[in-house]
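[[Local backbone shapes]]
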Amino acid sequence: MATVNFSVPDEVKMEFDKAFGDQNKSSIIADLMRRAVRERKLQIRRERLFRQFRVARSGRPTFTSEEVRRARSVERS
């Protein structure tokens, strides 16, 4: 098992101790780190999927706001 040292503001440590005072703090920190890793992986996956979506859509024609307004006014005439 690894030992990790972090510096945190005093008020954060006090609130943490207050909230989790009677629990195994190493276990809580390990769970929080696992959650952070899962969230980071999910964020990376979402960003990758978003980039793929943008690339897939890049083949579609795009229109400026002015082109859309002109097309709407022609349809209304």
The mean pLDDT is 89. The helical segments are 10-20, 25-57, 65-76.
